[in-house]
Write a structure and sequence with these properties.
This protein has 69 residues and is of the alpha+beta class. Helices cover 14% and strands 29% of the residues. It has a two-stranded parallel ribbon with strand order 1-2. The longest helix has 10 residues.
């Protein structure tokens, strides 16, 4: 499996260069967030600001392995 994370507000990746999910192989999952910039993926949880990408990527990598974070 492959996870593609992209932010719609990425200043370096034009929206028309991101493929549609339906055009990708079944083992490829595309997630496009509204915000995140270029490699930013910052988010707020309560009063804390932090990177949310690791919390999304790690479960994806562990799926199917029987391991859970």
């Amino acid at each position: 499996p492959l996870l593609i994370l992209n932010a719609a507000d990425d200043p370096l990746v034009a929206p028309d260069t991101v493929p549609a999910q339906r055009s990708l192989p079944s083992l490829v999952r595309l997630e496009v967030t509204r915000h995140g910039g270029h490699l930013g993926f910052l988010g707020r949880q309560g009063s804390n600001l932090g990177y949310w990408a690791p919390s999304r990527v790690l479960p994806f990598l562990l799926q199917g392995t029987g391991s859970h974070p």
